Amino acid sequence: MTATSERLAGLEAGRAERAHERDFAALAERLEGEGIAPEALVAEIQRFEVALPSWAFATGGTRFGRFSGAGEPRTLREKMEDAALVNGLTGGAAPRISLHIPWDSANDLEEVRADARRLGIGFDAVNSNTFQDQPGQPLSYKLGSFSNPNAAVRRQAIEHHLHVIEVGKAVGSKALTVWLADGSNYPGQMSLRGSFERVRECLHEVYAALPDDWRLFTEHKPYEPAFYATVVQDWGSSLLLAQSLGDRAQCLVDLGHHLPNANIELIVARLLGVGKLGGFHFNDSKYGDDDLTAGSIKPYVLFLIFHELVLAARERLPGFDPAYMIDQSHNLKDPIESLLQTVDQLQQAYAKACLVNHARLAEYQTSGDVIMAERTLKQAYETDVRPLVGEARRRRGGALDPVLAFRASGYRAQKTAERPAAAAGGAPTHL
Ligand code: LRH
Ligand code: MN
Known about the structure:
By secondary structure, the chain is an alpha/beta fold. Helix content is 48%, strand content 9%.
């Protein structure tokens, strides 16, 4: 960076700081006028944390190809370095990484813990993987893992989950996420009840092996890679499993795992109502499991989901302790920039949901004033909370605008120099 561009960047940063202070003061004054304490809100936003997916730091791809990016992480340590940067730029809002086994298998887990301590990050739920066959794996999961009619394949899958729990224990995780690709492509191929029964039986063995302070999250998905019937296809199937397993089994809602026009906030409310909302994989989508940046396609839905969560928190709903995690895949965007956007979008959706006047909303719902009830939500949603979220980050050493700060940092260029590019189009480190 030349001296001139550095001076200009400094001037620009100064201008942005002053504009932020002006905007924050104006919003704070307006909120005080509405009886909302801005400082309490800033503190509430600072308490919001979300975990980053280890598998999202390298560019993803589709079956039609993959466009690898420069300076991508090649090892778990490099993924953790990138995660620590996202955590820093967002003011500590992303303090944990979620591992995927065996994609993140490491020989020396003590070294992994030491790296995490050094980088100031921790570990959220660990993810199992029975949707791919690993080199040297004795039996294939082609026709299913826990649902497979072959008991030896089910045993192999159970052993894998017990191993994933051991890895999680070694790094300090407190939860296991189980997403099964199990399903069929043609009617008749699979027993629709038998396959579900076998999954339930296998999950009982895994649940029995969970450490006492752990949770198990079941993740539903309507299709892909199975294109006729997926065993854990919807929230109802996931709930049946979680209820069958026990109190420490709950449902994980991946926003992209719903058929078009599904009412996801209603599903969240249902699971909250029975104490079975375990957590989220945040992302966004237009059609299928597109794994796009959260808030990029349906920001109002994201707000409505957080509205249900803030309501539940304020009502101190029993068993309310959702694990917030991101699950995205980046085919076009710089992975770090997209994750910074997502954390910011989640902080904004959360802040807007905290602005809803719940007492007034309840009044309008009871009196049947449809328009005023809707307006009460829209007033919060249409409030520009960026000054609040920026302030919450800034006070914890984060950036007012994390994406611009990342670009100004030259981090990607530095990593491009440090990390020789993976062969173009080759399989990314997480696949
Ligand atoms: C399945 C899924 C699951 C992960 C995988 C990377 O689509 O959402 O949560 O294991 O993506
Ligand atoms: Mn997911």
